[in-house]
Amino acid sequence: MNASLRMAIDAAPHIVVTGGAGYIGSHAVVALFAAGYRVTIFDDLRRSHPQVLDGIAAITGEPASLVSVDICDEAALDAAFAQCGQVDAVIHFAAYKSVRESVADPVIYYRNNVGGTVSLIAAMARARCRRLVFSSSCTVYGQPDALPVTEASPMKTAASPYGASKQMCERILRDAQAAKGNTSLSHVVSLRYFNPAGAHPSALIGELPAGTPDNLIPYITQTAAGWRKTLRVFGSDYPTPDGTAIRDYLHVMDLAEAHVAAVELAMRASPGLEEINLGTGIGVSVLQAVAAFEHATGVTVPIEMAPRRPGDIEQIWSSGTRAADKLGWRTVRSIDEMMASAWAWQTRLGSTPPAGV
Ligand code: NAD
Ligand code: WQD
After folding, report:
1. Among 119, 112, 142, 149, which Cα is nearest to 22's?
2. Is pLDDT at 2 greater than 70 in this prediction?
3. Which is catalytic among the residues 23, 96, 141, 162?
4. How many CB atoms neighbour CB 237 within 10 A?
5. Helix (H/G/I), strand (E/B), else coil: 91
6. For the chain, what is the mean pLDDT?
7. Which helix or strand (DSSP H or E) is residue 41 part of?
8. Which pLDDT score is estimated for 5?
9. How far apart are CA 128 and CA 236, in angstroms?
10. Is 134 a pocket residue for ligand 1 (Cβ < 6 Å)?
11. Are 136 and 166 in contact (CB under 8 A)?
């Protein structure tokens, strides 16, 4: 890298990305870097693979700057912020995300997702950083009464401790932003993601869940790759055109770029709070998702029909109006690109699953 580019990067706003070694965080790190930000990752890699750092470095041409820290440990967070120098904003991805695991072990979800967010806000105040972008989820809405879901749609009682943890974090952030005390935040942008899928076009980073995937798209790619025998389609008796459940799948690179726009919103002059849905606005059924994968890749996915999965909602998709107004953002990548990139990443992983998968 030449000296003038180095100086420009050193002078750029500095963003801390908690959970930046995870699936969405790693793609956001790459997008932030491409937009000219300086990035430090706070992640202890408890739910990610160290190779993701090599992938980020290969894409950006810069070593990923990682501080290994448990975001629930306030003293360790203080040391991490002290090591960073000035931080202009934080994007907070670090959390657990499995609905199933949260039902089995709710306390670890409240401790990590809620406790970690509280610890982070307190440490940010001591580090004099009061601008936060938060990873929320469409799960805060439950089964909506009307579609598409707008940010004004009511939040139902959460169906899982995971969903409750996101609702609680959003409430904590609203309170912290409205307050004027020592631990208040000046700028908060909570992003409610719908269903992220796909991978960076280089296939150097992507999604690799530990164990059997809960989510549809990694299950499709792992089945197509022969890691799994068949894809079970959970529920064929929903009141939808083909009887299978409908979701709003968005390309992870579109989602990553939304974080660049959200950081820019959080860096504005006047304090504020925004809660914004991030989706395509298009509902896709499970069978349509399988067909889209087969169309994009030419690879057949063996399926079998199975009963509904407990706790699943029937159908949900997003309104993109507020994201367009507040972030100037909408998705630009097609479902074909999403599926092709997910498959390119899966293919790079090889014909047998790595240990622990
Ligand atoms: P991920 O599991 O791939 O990444 C999470 C990262 O956070 C991992 O690298 C993990 O090591 C790190 N982490 C977790 N707890 C930590 C702790 N206490 N200290 C330090 N690091 C810690 O998850 P993801 O899919 O990238 O999701 C990121 C965020 O987006 C999460 O908050 C999740 O709830 C939210 N979200 C995800 C989805 C989705 O479908 N993937 C949808 C909506 C919202
Ligand atoms: C999509 C559809 C399944 C696997 C989850 C979380 C939610 C949010 C997004 C984080 C459903 C069906 C799946 C399979 C299948 N994450 N399916 N066979 O249910 O919208 O939400 O991810 O915030 O909180 O709950 O996504 O990908 O798990 O499922 O038929 O092997 O695919 O039943 O209808 P979901 P998903």
Report:
1. 112
2. no
3. 162
4. 10
5. strand
6. 96
7. strand 38-42
8. 60
9. 52
10. no
11. yes
Q: How many other CB atoms sit within 10 Å of the CB of residue 255?
A: 26
Which residue type sits at 163?
A: G
Task: Give 303's pLDDT tier (boundaries 50, 70, 90).
Answer: very high
Q: Which residue among 96, 97, 140, 216 is best mutated to probe the pocket of ligand 2, counting the most ligand atoms within 8 A of its Cβ?
A: 216
Residue entry with tokens 């806000």 = 121
Question: What's the token pair of residue 94?
Answer: 């670090």
pLDDT at position 357 over 80: no
The finding on whether 312 has its CB within 6 A of some atom of ligand 2 is yes
pLDDT confidence bin for 9, thresholds 50/70/90: low
Residues 216-275 have pLDDT tens digits of 999 999 999 999 999 999 999 999 999 999 999 999 999 999 999 999 999 998 999 999
**Would you place residue 350 in the very low, low, confident or very high pLDDT band (cuts 50, 70, 90)?**
confident
pLDDT band of 3, cuts 50, 70, 90: low
Measured in whole angstroms, the distance separating CA 207 from the mean position of its chain's CA atoms is 11
Strand 89-92 and strand 195-197: the pairing is unpaired
Q: How far is CA 191 from CA 35, 171, 184, 256, 309, in A?
A: 19, 13, 19, 11, 26
Query: How far is Cα of residue 215 from the mean position of the Cα atoms in its chain?
Result: 13
Q: Which ligand is nearest to the CA of 285?
A: 2
By the 8 A CB rule, do 331 and 319 touch? no
**Domains delineated in the chain:** 3-197+250-279+318-332 (3.40.50.720)
Give the pLDDT band of residue 8 (cuts 50, 70, 90).
low
Whole-angstrom distance, CA of residue 16 vs CA of residue 12: 13
Question: How far apart are the CA of 146 and the centre of ligand 2, in A?
Answer: 20
The reply to whether 219 belongs to the active site is no
From 215, 222, 286, 304, the mutation candidate for ligand 2 (largest count of ligand atoms within 8 A of CB) is 215
